[in-house]
Amino acid sequence: MTRAQIIVRNVAYLLSGTLTTWGFSLLVWLVVPRVIGPAAWGEFNLGLAISSLAVSLGGFGIATYLLKEIARDSGRSGDWLTAGLAASAALAVPIAAAVLGFTVVAKYTHHTRTVVLLVTCVSLASFLVAPAVNALQAREKMHVNTLVSGVRTVVSSATIVALAVAFRPDIIVLTLAVLIITVLASVVQIVVTNRDIPVSLRVDRRLGWRLITGGLPFWSNGVFLTVYIWIDSILLSLLTSNGEVGYYAAPVQVIVTLGFLPALLSTVIFPSLTRDFHEDFTRARRFSRASLSGLITLGLPISVGLALVGPGVIRYAFGPAFAPSAPVMVVLAFTIVPGYVATLAYWILAAADRQRRWAYVMGVVAIGNPLINLATITYFQHRTGHGSMGAAVALLISDVLVAVAGLALIPRECLTPTRPLLAAASRAGLATALMAVPVWLLRDSFLALPVVVGICIFVTAALALGLFRGDGYDDAWSALRAGIVRAHDHRKVVDVSA
User: How many CA atoms lie within 13 Å of 185's alpha carbon, on the beta-carbon side?
Assistant: First the structure.
């Protein structure tokens, strides 16, 4: 199987899992926020913000470094995985203690503190099993992770929705249910991973030290990234109220879900890019260019379309109690394209061993973003009574700056010649403009109508303009066609045998 075929296969696995996650996440959005209200939803997302920042600070980037090392040295996968699991377990205790200390210093209510600590336990359960997930990713066995993650998502989402509808419990009860399911899923992940990569009872301390020292560049980047993504929710809780956190969290959840494209693509191509930047730079350059062009092409219509129908999305998904989230959704919609570009740029730099440069950029942004948030949240809270709008503006400014820096830092060969990339972006812009007019006219209709019409018009225009041809796409389409032919031939063999 060729490298392109492996990538297409893994995209198929991850896409199926992502669509499952999407569907059940949508179910949660449609039910839970309506039941618990903006304040409780804000408490839950405040817990996500604090725990994410704590895990990022205390994680030392070991999971990402482990992924990179196993991708290059699969012969020692078991030793690396054992060291990664041991290091994660050792770091979990101080992370939990730090979160508890912060909730006391911040003078949160007992209820808010309990929710934050429970959400932190959920995050730690995922943190502890992250080395196992990344080890299978490095071995390009995405189907295992997809299956475990998909089952966990289905079970947890169904349980939360059922509890919310039947009993309308406190957010603490719902969070506790998520924790139990996450712990069980983590145990299953370890057991399944152990079948492919045996975990030893003896830890190689030298590998553990290499994980911590080697992961520092990834750690610093992860910390800076987490700060500028989550610090807005924490500042909102300190400067405004849990309700404002909820108003901001609702559209952010939509944006995070739509971020599956760069996350999926980066997850699939990173192991191959890591090898190709050392073994076949031409192929690495080709896939990097195709990935960048594809993300821009798909990001433009998603961004513009969401800005047009964003208020409708908030109204249908979260209910009238979240009406102040509508203008926040419009602003955040324009973070999609720079967010896509920044995500891909980071993984390209990591594959090319240039992550230290990215860490410097993220360090600057991590310092500047809280300052921007302080200014914008205070301004909008004073002028409009909704500091959530200020947090959205701050995130948009930060995303644009990071995307520009990412394009400046990735290898020049991945961008030159620039004419094909600019031509693809121009054609994508034209197709998006053709889509935007009818979507705007239908924006007040039933939500599904402008969405379906917009997708149909964009796809038709994209095909007519040849958006997905050349510059690396030919390899991907050839691999996809080859996979379809093999599946068809295999089915014929099975039919004949039967």
Answer: 27
